[in-house]
Design a protein that fits this description.
The protein is of the alpha/beta class. The protein contains 18 helices and 17 strands.
């Protein structure tokens, strides 16, 4: 059978402009790699074809003529996914269409009862490697649909939802597809080629704004270290790529295991390797020896989820009091030459304007190298959504296209959603100011930071200063909102 696996073109501005980061979808690459031999699998990351989605996809699928099309979608990408499904039904009326990823996993019952559900044949829930493998075999007459855990399929025009599947034995999961079967290329972080890998899956933390437990349960599983090295070999030597985003939900959850991974990578030796990862503040604060080992292994950037400078908000997020740990974690990282991307969340129920300012001041105080700030989003099935819905604080319950962390879908007890949206933007502009890359960042990327410091920033500052005089803060904010709206509009899919 011929199979096409597609990820969505929707993006969010991570740290800086959305065009600066285009990373491959490791999920569909892994699912494709684990289909049994005898089938032809192709991987398409539409993040690399954002300008002409319909034209590219129609031309590509006409060449492949797939029997099965699998689409991966997160909640905020679902609207685009439905538009693509409509096009697929016109182009490939006989192909089977399967949806997978976070949104179908969380919302399978709602999708099954929706209007667009009539266009969809299957929903792959949870980890997709085994469920999709068996689905392909069933369509090939070698398995039975009703016996496949984690699969939703139609019987008599209505969806039947099989029981969830067991968590996978990660030692049996094959390396993701990165060869000629991946039809898109040009993945990058700034001007550097990049790839994505994982060394573990899951997280046992209790943060109530996160939906990870619906994918993996409250579990934590690791790949064998030999498999981690094989994956890194494929990226470093096979793809000749030096920048690697490690997509683990929390790389440092098991300290002893993380130490072993770091030591193995360091012993293997990958000159000029640049690893990017996310980790929790408490572990990074309490285990400086682990931070040192990460630096020796090639970890150059760490995302730390600080979430808030308010103990009240941290308690509401079930995060625990991590303020002191956040400070210490940044200090430990900087001591060993690791850049810190600090994550903050705005819009908790009791937030006022002073809380928004305090968060930004805290980022300056701890000397975070850069920030990734979001507005609290009531993602489906999360604990925080129920709390916010019960209190009447959710102002947008159904337009999921705005569930990417950039939009105010909630209000607080003191601010309406419009005020929240404006103040988060305004105080970032006035408190954080123009970004100045630290010595650590300049050492990692002298070319692009030099272009930013001496070309782009002066030019943009001059342009914005003129706009500021002409249209003021309100005018600039309207332009900001307009850009957010246009960012993920794909007119050719309408």
């Amino acid at each position: 059978m011929k199979i096409a696996l597609i990820s969505m073109p929707d993006v969010a501005p991570v740290i800086m402009h959305e065009s600066a980061f285009h990373m491959p979808n490791c999920g569909i690459a892994s699912i494709g790699a684990n289909v049994d031999p005898g089938h032809s699998v192709y991987v398409v990351d539409l993040v690399r074809r954002r300008r002409h989605v319909r034209q590219y996809l129609q031309k590509t699928l006409a060449k492949i003529r797939p029997d099965v099309v699998g689409l991966s979608t997160m909640t905020w990408q679902y609207g685009t996914c439905v538009k693509i499904v409509r096009q697929l039904r016109r182009w490939l009326p006989n192909a089977k269409i399967a949806l997978g990823g976070y949104h179908p996993t969380l919302m399978y019952e709602e999708i099954g009862q929706s209007e667009e559900g009539q266009m969809i044949d299957f929903l792959v829930r949870g980890e997709g490697e085994e469920t999709f493998r068996r689905l392909v075999n069933a369509l090939d007459g070698k398995d039975r649909l009703h016996e496949i855990p984690g699969l939703s399929f139609k019987d008599g025009g209505q969806f039947v939802h099989n029981p969830p599947g067991d968590l996978l034995d990660l030692s049996r999961v094959r390396l993701p597809i990165r060869d000629e079967r991946r039809l898109t290329d040009g993945y990058h972080v700034m001007n550097f080629k990049c790839e994505v890998m994982e060394t573990s899956r899951g997280c046992t933390r209790t943060c109530n704004f996160c939906s990870i437990r619906h994918m993996y349960g409250r579990s934590y599983r690791t790949y064998p270290i030999r498999r981690v090295l094989a994956d890194l070999d494929d990226i470093y030597f096979g793809r000749r790529t030096r920048w690697v985003f490690v997509s683990d939900d929390n790389f440092v959850l098991d300290v002893e295991r993380a130490l072993k991974v770091c030591d193995a990578i360091a012993r293997r030796g990958y000159p000029r390797l640049q690893l990017i990862v996310q980790a929790d503040c408490v572990t990074m604060a309490r285990n400086e020896h682990l931070v040192a080992a990460m630096a020796r292994a090639g970890f150059r950037s760490v995302f730390l989820g600080m979430e808030s400078a308010s103990r009240r908000n941290l308690a509401a997020a079930k995060k625990g009091d991590i303020i002191d740990a956040s400070r210490q974690a940044v200090e430990n990282c900087h001591k060993h030459g690791i850049m810190v991307v600090a994550g903050m969340i705005f819009g908790f129920p009791d937030d006022e304007e002073q809380d928004i300012e305090a968060n930004y001041r805290f980022l300056k105080e701890v000397d975070a190298d850069t920030d990734y700030c979001q507005i609290l989003t009531p993602y489906p099935k999360t604990g925080i959504r129920k709390v916010l819905m019960d209190e009447g604080l959710v102002t947008n319950a159904e337009n999921y296209a705005r569930y990417n962390g950039m939009w105010a879908n909630v209000k607080t007890r003191h601010l309406n959603d419009g005020q929240l949206q404006f103040l988060v933007w305004y105080h970032r502009e006035t408190t954080m100011g123009w970004w100045t890359p630290s010595a650590r960042i300049r050492a990692q990327g002298p070319l692009w930071t030099g272009i930013w410091l001496y070309v782009m920033r002066p030019l943009m500052k001059k342009i914005l200063d003129r706009k500021q005089q002409r249209i003021g803060w309100k005018g600039r904010f309207k332009n900001h909102l307009r850009r957010l709206v246009e960012m993920n509009r794909f007119p050719d899919l309408e």
